[in-house]
Amino acid sequence: MIGGTGITKTFRQRGGVLGAREVPALRGVDFAIPKGGAVSFIGESGCGKTTLGRIIAGLETCDAGEIVIDGVAMSSLSHRRRQPYFRRVQLVHQDPYSALNPTRTIHQALAAPLALRARQTGRPRAWADERAGELLGMVGLDPGYVLPRYPHQLSGGMRQRVVIARALTVDPEVLVADEAVSMIDVSLRLGILALLKDLRERLGVSVLFITHDVATARYIGTDGELYVIYRGQVVERGPVETVISAPVHPYTQALLSAIPVLHGLESPGEQRVVPVEASGDHPSDDTSGHPGGHPSDHAGGCLFAPRCPFRTERCERERPVLGHDGDTPQRHACFHPERRSVVAVPVSRR
Ligand SMILES: Nc1ncnc2c1ncn2[C@@H]1O[C@H](COP(=O)(O)OP(=O)(O)OP(=O)(O)O)[C@@H](O)[C@H]1O
Ligand SMILES: [Mg+2]
After folding, report:
1. How far apart, in whole angstroms, are the C-alpha atoms of residue 34 and residue 269?
2. Is residue 287 domain-resident?
3. Does any domain span residue 118?
4. Domain limits for position 110
């Protein structure tokens, strides 16, 4: 079990006409990835999904908050002693081209981590070669064909499978798939999604799926949990099917209304999230137009208020925290959930 509480991260960006500015990427995020479970983070570009994925994989540190892996708080360990824990979380990069070294064969790419593992566990060297073949078989590739080849000799889908096989060399507990199919040809996406799903079922590996696309999140784990992130805050969280069929937060409703097809993968990964129409405001203003951050940050109001058709005075004054409503299985951060089902949220079709 891997979890986190209060994960907070602010980037300090330097340069540009506006000078240095602070970009709050994550604002006190709590999460839990159960063993063998599926968790999806969804939200528009820049909301902090990748930053959170990288912190969970130990590739980035947080400013505040705590990551706990198998009951051990990572902040209690030295950098060196943390590494074996974070090794259990493997990131599958969205771009399989840049994730593999073009000058090394697939055999070389897999042999290095496996040889290390053989040494660590006192296995003979031959084990590494055998295991490389086994792992490629596991991800649906023919080892005889793939092992001697260079990345450029393989298709995008094959390369992504190799990247997943390489992640499996360390027997991970969690695979963090960050937009793992977005750069792959549409015809090959379903295969990769099916593979991640299959690895969950066969190996019991958890999948943390980071995406813009609700349909793919649903495909990976209908039994899983969906986290809807808006400007670094989780605004809604709950069982995938519940959140999709009965979204409570207006932002979630906007995300869902922007995606016309929600029944499985009829349009695999093609539909991108279309943000809610801003009434004189847009998240692209959040970090670029205000050197010290967005005005709503200072006001302490709801982060979504500037774009929300349901906002009240309270929303502009006070920031709602994620909580249960009593009658909904999901948690949401909204003061006015009772208005949800009545009015559709306007969506810009850009
Ligand atoms: N290394 C960095 N230095 C400065 N700012 C950063 C850095 N990484 C991310 N950010 C900023 O933090 C915010 C969150 O970025 P992040 O990449 O996590 O978003 P995302 O949800 O993954 O977006 P996308 O869907 O486009 O991949 C953005 O405003 C981004 O510009
Ligand atoms: Mg990202």
Report:
1. 25
2. yes
3. yes
4. 100-171
Q: Are strands 89-92 and 72-73 parallel, antiparallel or unpaired?
A: unpaired
> What six digits make up the tokens of 83?
């590494």
Q: Is the CB of 42 under 6 A from ligand 1?
A: no
Which atom of ligand 1 lies closest to the CA of 51? 18
Structural domains counted in the chain: 2
Contacts of 173 (CB under 8 A, 6+ apart): 2, 35, 88, 89, 205, 206
Q: Which ligand is nearest to the CA of 44?
A: 1
Q: Does 48 contact ligand 1 (Cβ within 6 A)? A: yes
Residue 94 near ligand 1, beta carbon < 6 Å: no
Q: Per the domain annotation, does 276 fall within a domain?
A: no
Distance CA 138, CA 320 (A): 45
User: 314-341, pLDDT tens digit by residue?
Assistant: 999 999 999 887 777 889 999 987 655 4
> How many Å lie between the centroid of ligand 1 and the Cα of residue 69?
24
| Interval 270-299: pLDDT, tens | 333 333 443 434 444 344 344 444 555 556
